[in-house]
Amino acid sequence: MKLLEKRQQLLILLGCLILFGGCGQGRVKENLSGIAVNEGLIRINVDTITRESKINYSDIFDGIEIIALETKEECLIGQVDQLEIVNDTIYILDSFSAKALFLFDLEGRFIRKIGVVGRGPGEFNRPDFFSIDDAKKQIYVLDRNTRRVLVFSNTGEHLKSLTLQGNLIFNQIVFDRDIILVDNLVRDGGSKYWLHAIDLEGNELEKWMDSDVYNKGCTALITVSNNFFKSSYDVKYFKPFSDTIFSIQDRKIKPFLTLESSNRATVDDIAELNKIEDVRELTRSFISFKKLNGISHYIENSKLISFEYRNERLTYSLFRFAQTGEMLGAHMVTDDYTGCFPAQDFIGAYNDFFVSAFDMHGKSLEKLIDNIRDNKIKLSKENYQKLLKVRLDDNPVLVLYKCKDRLN
């Protein structure tokens, strides 16, 4: 799978351990409580996963379904930067091309576009990230450049804007019950805490993760994927150079999964990265970093957990079946359903499915259709007809992979 997104951009951020407790009221609280012990902590030794190991998607998934997104002038998508499927509605964020949030139904029919570029009420400079309040059907959109979180109804009405106070530089957000968790970019002159909580009026409540203490002292500004994953019952949190995924539930945190290896990075290894100020040089150093250096592209549902990590300069994918604990890990992952190698990154989960977005240009579309005609892919007649209608430069096609319960 790809290490960096298509644009190969470095989003600025670092930090990988959290301390979390109850929210304070009326003042910013520095939370120094310990992380809860998790006797059910999942431990995975990755030293047994070699660069020669291979995985086919048919080992993990039972088949695929297709959602061809409707293509209209008012909903042209250049790139899928973030995707959520909530209450049978597909939310797709295109941060750089369209600079908008698009809503589709599960048949791929366009519902509406949310957001207008600008600096007025209800307008943003660029929508960088979003999170959904399922209960109230409200959407929280982060605009880093104007230091605001804009709140919209599901019908697109702008309800309010939260102006971010203080010296925080926000990278990503996630709505969690009655607070918003925010990644802060640790910079000179700013807050030295990675994670902050604000209330629904924009007031800061708590801060966690002193950058002087956690993540092996790393202050290098790197991330390669979203750092949050919101499931139906908790929020998962993970960062580059961390070997642990944490679970945040009811404002408490505990380690959920940790990677073990004889090739873990040390404080001295990270200290060398901290000295690099040039972004391009830092990117090259990160790619060539030989030690185990963290978790990215985490996704889960009730059947399967999937994420990537880097070790010995290579990217590995790991899959763990939730019910049986069976695992598969490999450097080489082939999507034998679509013929895609390396396989596309997953960008979302919905019920028993993992979701990828395919830009249907030229050979990608032809390869997929050929595999269906050769009976290499079992697709319903309805989905096949949808695919045949897709044309070059149409909106992306969503491919939903149905997760197995266990290895065959």
Indicate how many domains the architecture comprises: 1
Distance between the termini: 23 Å
Counting H and I runs of at least 4 residues, what is the number of helices?
4
Largest sheet: 5 strands, mixed
Shape designation: globular
Overall mean confidence score, pLDDT:
82
Strand order of the largest sheet: 1-18-17-16-15
Question: Radius of gyration from the CA trace?
Answer: 21 Å
Helix coverage percent of residues?
under 10%
CATH topology: Neuraminidase
The counted number of beta strands is 30
Known CATH architecture: 6 Propeller
Task: Report the CATH C-level class.
Answer: Mainly Beta
The percent range for strand residues is 35-45%
The name of the CATH superfamily reads: TolB, C-terminal domain
Could you name the ranges where pLDDT drops below 50 across 5 or more consecutive residues?
Answer: 1-26
Overview of the molecule:
The protein has 408 residues and is mainly β. The chain has a single domain (29-403), classed as TolB, C-terminal domain (Neuraminidase, 6 Propeller). It contains four helices and 30 strands. The strands form eight sheets. The protein has a five-stranded mixed sheet with strand order 1-18-17-16-15, with no helix packed on it. A five-stranded mixed sheet has the order 2-22-21-20-19, with no helix packed on it. A hairpin with an 8-residue loop joins strand 16 and strand 17. It is globular and about 60 Å long. It starts with 28 loop residues before the first strand and ends in a 5-residue tail after the last strand.
